[in-house]
Automatic annotation (TrEMBL):
Function according to Swiss-Prot or TrEMBL: Intake of glucose and galactose.
SUPFAM superfamilies to which the protein is assigned, alphabetical: MFS general substrate transporter
Lineage: Bacteria, Pseudomonadati, Bacteroidota, Chitinophagia, Chitinophagales
Pfam families: MFS_1
Protein name stated in the entry: Sugar MFS transporter
Length: 410
């Protein structure tokens, strides 16, 4: 990687601290804003008297954005640069958060969904801008370490979001059920102001301008790349299944815990923070384990464990059922990175196009979550959670199939 403004060919190490701090704040806000949707699903269900499938449209429209915007956002960032791309992402996400105010005035569910769609466009743009920037900002030998560190900060945001949602959103809905829309105004105006402020700060910061010195020239078509690389073809579906399972469990965990333990959604929502917090702990453990074992083997094992935990949860009751489901978060921690790395292995100059396809597959968070909601509306929690269990089954088969080949350790 190269840095446009260089000092003897590279930016001094001290020059990385400020941009990395800015990126840490960026990832915190992305994780916080995204996981706060897990609070909005039970909130809208109760506040607007919706079915599970109707309330799941929160996640449907949010993650649908990845399928629609990832590639256009990548082209935008390629045209204006990483820094301006991040600023655009912050501003768009802030605009979506501000739109919660007019949505609350009209008290219409569809307007809230439109606001969330705008927020999601901003989040996708932020991710498309930040991921390659972190990789390019500094020596290639420490790129994985930087990305892991910044993602860890994002996990703090995902852990705190359910606690924030329980206190500032669900608890106030229970106190004033006839003012459902108004409950959301203050929290999202706070979020909007924070996003806008950070966007302005990033714009004013003199961040190193980084560009890649690696040639990305690739004349192959997308279908040709998929056909020539089975690991990518099946990996795209792997990302689809993983994100779908992860988001579905996080989305319905509040209602699931409330039903199992017979408590209010306000109290149950706090348990969601343990689910997402497990991903932070799991990343630390997984980073150590992956030093000694092949990625595909670890992926297959943790996917199998996730299946056992889900089945054990739906066949149990009380606290055992709750904590078994929460423990799935530990398994989720390294799945995305593992599937992604296995999918792009050996692609060379086609890696850029493959990354775009894999990012588009994140729309699994929309599709899987909705189908689980439909099952819950018509059947039981036990049957509905077979959907994420089947997703993990596919991931297990993906890792197990790759483990049969003599592929090098990632």
């Amino acid at each position: 990687m190269e840095v446009d403004k260089q000092q003897n060919g590279s930016v001094q190490k001290s020059g990385y601290l400020l941009p990395l701090c800015a990126l840490a704040v960026l990832y915190f806000l992305m994780g916080f804003t995204t996981v706060l949707n897990d609070t909005l699903v039970p909130f809208f269900k109760q506040g607007f008297n919706l079915t599970y499938s109707q309330s799941s449209l929160v996640q449907f429209y949010f993650y649908l954005t990845y399928g629609l915007i990832s590639i256009p956002a990548g082209k935008l960032v390629g045209a204006i640069g990483y820094k301006k791309g991040m600023v655009v992402g912050f501003c768009v996400a802030a605009l979506g958060s501000f739109l919660f105010y007019p949505a609350s005035q009209f008290h219409h569910y569809a307007l809230f969904l439109a606001a969330l769609f705008v927020i999601a466009i901003g989040i996708v743009t932020l991710q498309v801008s930040a991921n390659p920037y972190i990789t390019a900002l500094g020596p290639e030998s420490s790129a994985a370490s930087r990305l892991t560190l910044i993602q860890g900060v994002g996990s703090i945001g995902t852990t705190l979001a359910p606690v924030f949602g329980a206190h500032f959103i669900l608890s106030r809905l229970e106190a004033a059920p006839d003012q459902a829309s108004g409950v959301l105004v203050k929290p999202y105006l706070m979020i909007a102001s924070t996003l806008l402020l950070v966007g302005i700060i990033v714009y004013l910061l003199k961040l190193p301008q980084v560009t890649s010195s690696i040639s990305h020239k690739d004349n192959k078509g997308i279908l040709e790349i998929i056909r020539q690389h089975p690991n990518l073809k099946f990996g795209i579906l792997g990302i689809f299944c993983y994100v779908g399972a992860e988001v579905a469990i996080g989305t319905y965990l509040t209602n699931y815990v409330a039903d199992v333990l017979h408590i209010t959604e306000h109290k149950a929502n706090v348990y969601v923070s343990y689910y997402w917090g497990g991903m932070l702990v799991g990343r630390l453990i997984g980073a150590y384990i992956l030093r000694f074992f092949k990625t595909q083997n670890v992926l297959a094992v943790i996917a199998l464990i996730a299946i056992v935990l889900i089945l054990g949860s739906v066949l149990s009751s009380g606290n055992i059922a709750v904590w078994l489901m929460i423990a799935v978060g530990l398994c989720n921690s390294i799945m995305f990175a593992s599937i992604f790395s296995l999918s792009v292995r050996g692609l060379g100059a086609s890696t850029g196009k493959a990354s775009g396809l894999l990012s588009t597959a994140i729309l699994g968070g929309a599709i899987i979550t909705y189908f689980q909601a439909v099952l819950k509306d018509n059947l039981t929690w036990g049957i509905s959670f077979l959907i994420p269990a089947l997703c993990y089954l596919y991931i297990f088969l993906y890792g197990w199939k790759l483990s049969q080949k003599t592929a090098p350790t990632t």
